[in-house]
Amino acid sequence: MGTSVRNTQYTAEATKSDNKVYKIVFHAGTVDELFNSAALDGQAFVQKFVEAYNIREMEPFAGQNAGWIYLSLHGYKITIFVDKTLMVESAPKQNEFQFD
Question: What backbone phi and psi angles, to 5 degrees, belong to 46?
């Protein structure tokens, strides 16, 4: 890991080799401010998010940090946790997937 910037609103992480940001996490309160979503629970927020950004579907996942995930073939992954924390990460593009 390289550089990490953390505060009460977001966390951003960059690679050490080229200092490119590969992950941004917007904490729940910041998400409410950015998307005017304080009145929505996590599930309602995900539904509105999917509709607003024309995402075909976010897959739910369970566990201690349950939520929904969307993996784009265009090089990014979006994770929204039940508390509405929003994480955007770089991911392999469709032409970069390798199966050894």
Answer: -60, -45
